[in-house]
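Lab notebook, bench 4. Still working through the backlog of constructs that have no structural model yet. Next entry is a single chain of 184 residues. Request: give me the structure tokens for it.
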Amino acid sequence: MSTAPPRPSGDLTYRDATDADVPALVVLVQAAYRGDGDERGWTTESHLIGGRRIDESGIREVMTADNSRLIVVTGEDGDVVACFQLERRADRAYFGLFAVRPGLQGNGLGRRVITQAEQLAVQAWGATAMEMTVISVREDLIAWYERRGYRRTGSLSPFPYGSERHGTPKREDLVFEQLVKDLG
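Model written out:
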């Protein structure tokens, strides 16, 4: 008999990240992208890439970049349950660094968060579309985004092999694929 993952109770709060959030965000992103064992959610890419996903300086870089916001999502108890980056790119918004606490994945939290991110991009910047990049071999993750209205564009960009900042690839065929959703 399987049990459903726990749901965050009460309302979610969305706010810009602060310096005080940096350590918790490193832990969250690392667990969501590279988690193993008890910290393994369905979004992990640890079978494709090893090593660190991000460090404190990487989080701060996203927080301070021009036209970029790093949003922290907290539950009723104030604990960080998710995060995402929005970056203004002319009339579009780039969606990245999306992480949901592994123990809360699979219960609709990610769907709620991405919907809020889209609304925020429209309200804050008048964005007409949201774009992102996903490792092209992540068919399960791409299918999840397609169910949210994103479409594959066929535009590919190289994975940064040799850059330890992005982790250590375990395969030699990794590329990023662009997905887009019209927000109008």
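Notes after review: The CA atoms of residues 48 and 63 lie 27 Å apart. Confidence is low (pLDDT under 50) at residues 1-9. Flag for follow-up if needed.
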